Task: structure prediction
Amino acid sequence: MSRISQCFEKLKADGQTALIPYITAGDPEPWVTVPMLHALVDSGANILELGVPFSDPMSDGPVIQKACERALKNEMSLQHVLKMVAQFREKDNETPIILMGYANPLEAMGYQVFAEQAQKAGVDGVLTVDLPPEESDIFLPLMKQHDIDTIFLVAPTTTTERIKMIAEHASGFIYYVSLKGVTGSAAIDASQIGEKLDLIRQYSDLPLGVGFGIRDGRSAASVSEMADAVVVGSTLVNCIAEHEKTPEKLPAVVAGLVAEMRHAINARDMAK
Result:
């Protein structure tokens, strides 16, 4: 059983919702990424989503686009990201790590090489935005062979037929994009989220995570009523941008934001 599956099973047994924060590797400085990851775990994160910087992050809004630009100026590469995961694993061998990014860096490295190196580094899952199940005939078997979960996105506009296909190929959990548009673009509509999650659950027993539009403890708690996991990205990345000139403060800063969300989610979980 993967670390991701183990994490969700434990949380379910404890009546808790997973909190999954996202940061971009190498933003604003490469040396602060791993300390931030540890700080996120210490403040209540259950699973970590680590962004692989890319020059054309098509599903991301301006906040994460700029984070990728800052990271790329630091000459971050997929190889560097894998080294960060390995460094994180020196102290934490339990918290699942998901790499979120785009197909181009994986293709440049080669799927086989990536699968081998990602497994060796301690990567637990991959979410490749522009590599849908329809185009993953080579990728999916390699990830399965190397015990790496493949996480796919479901959007508000995804048809029932396509939800069925995604459910057949996904592992770890399914990521529901709570709004139309890019990351950080709008506020969420809880009623629409609930309806879509109910539909997805008709075709999959996997945990369901919800992201895009979660800005604070209140919105995180609202989503936790319906989802198995709450994914937060742009709010954290925006905070990182605000402290770009003082990166040494960032582990404590991001920990404070995640602790607030963890507290709000826990309060809602206890009230269920």
